[in-house]
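Input record, target 12 of the design panel.
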């Protein structure tokens, strides 16, 4: 396809010229504090001077707004819209439910930057359905009964769905940050391998959530039930915002384990990973006595996971990608 040439009027050359879009760093003082922003500029190909093309000022305002919010950890307009979508609540009712003035959210959606205090309140309810339920109950008398009933039911349902441990939420967040798209089958197996390598390398579990031996391999039932209600690619679901940035709660050793799993086991499909788990003692022991077509909720004990992966670590050295890849190679022969 032929590349479209960008042309506009250059006030220096006094004629229409071709231009290129480039990034430049600028400094700007906001509330007596200096910030560095990376914004888009249009540069004339002939005189090399900056040009003012249509839409550029609006783009720069948006870029500065987004980067400033990131600097100060302020909630974004997109996040506020997701909050409204998740709880099926309008601007004014949401303002009242959070204990704000009636038009506060309307102003934020129009571009006004929230105070850190109000931003933190919005982020708290966005990341935790229990916090949203609490706010709705605190301000129940300020919103219409129909609105309250609708939103509180959603909050209760989400609270039930997100009943996995905080550590599991952090691991899920980090995994999705590392892999753009992942199937439910592959996700379950990666969580299992993360648990196994955590035992092998750190001598402790990554999380305490229970693992079961299902027909298609190890499964964490609460995680399964959670994503069963999401779109095929969870990242495309507004509710995925609840996972955002939780990965920062993991320490360096925990992130190292997840990185090792993602960069080795994560290169294979869910079906290949299923085949590997079907050869491993933890799943085999838990499934003993069950036929493949019989659903089983038998637990895969953490002690079995620990002993197996510690044993394999002595043979293959799971502290390196090479060792893990050699293990995988042997398992899929």
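The sequence produced for target 12 reads:
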């Amino acid at each position: 396809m032929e590349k479209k040439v960008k042309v506009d009027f250059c006030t220096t050359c006094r004629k229409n010229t071709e231009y290129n879009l480039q990034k430049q760093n600028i400094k700007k003082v906001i509330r007596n504090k200096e910030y560095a922003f990376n914004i888009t500029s249009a540069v004339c190909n002939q005189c090399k001077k900056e040009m003012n093309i249509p839409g550029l000022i609006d783009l720069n305002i948006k870029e500065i707004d987004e980067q400033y919010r990131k600097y100060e950890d302020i909630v974004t307009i997109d996040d506020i819209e997701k909050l409204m979508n998740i709880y099926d609540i309008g601007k004014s009712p949401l303002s009242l439910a959070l204990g704000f003035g009636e038009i506060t959210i309307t102003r934020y959606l129009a571009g006004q930057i929230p105070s850190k205090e109000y931003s933190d309140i919005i982020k708290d309810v966005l990341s935790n359905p229990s916090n949203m339920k609490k706010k709705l109950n605190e301000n129940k008398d300020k919103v219409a009964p129909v609105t309250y009933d609708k939103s509180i039911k959603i909050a209760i349902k989400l609270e039930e769905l997100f009943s996995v441990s905080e550590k599991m939420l952090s691991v899920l967040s980090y995994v999705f940050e590392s892999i753009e798209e992942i199937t439910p089958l592959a996700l379950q197996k990666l969580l299992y391998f993360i648990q196994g390598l955590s035992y092998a390398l750190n001598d402790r579990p990554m999380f305490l959530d229970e693992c079961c031996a299902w027909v298609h391999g190890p499964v964490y039932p609460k995680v399964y039930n959670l994503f069963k209600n999401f779109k095929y690619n969870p990242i495309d679901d507004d509710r995925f915002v609840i996972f955002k940035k939780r990965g920062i709660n993991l320490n360096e050793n925990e992130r190292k384990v997840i990185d090792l799993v993602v960069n080795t086991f994560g290169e294979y499909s869910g079906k290949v990973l299923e085949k590997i788990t079907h050869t491993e003692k933890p799943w085999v022991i838990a499934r003993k006595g069950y036929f493949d077509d019989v659903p089983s909720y038998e637990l895969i004990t953490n002690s079995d996971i620990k002993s197996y992966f510690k044993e394999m670590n002595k043979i293959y050295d799971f502290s390196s990608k090479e060792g893990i890849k050699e293990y995988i190679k042997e398992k899929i022969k």
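The mean pLDDT is 91.
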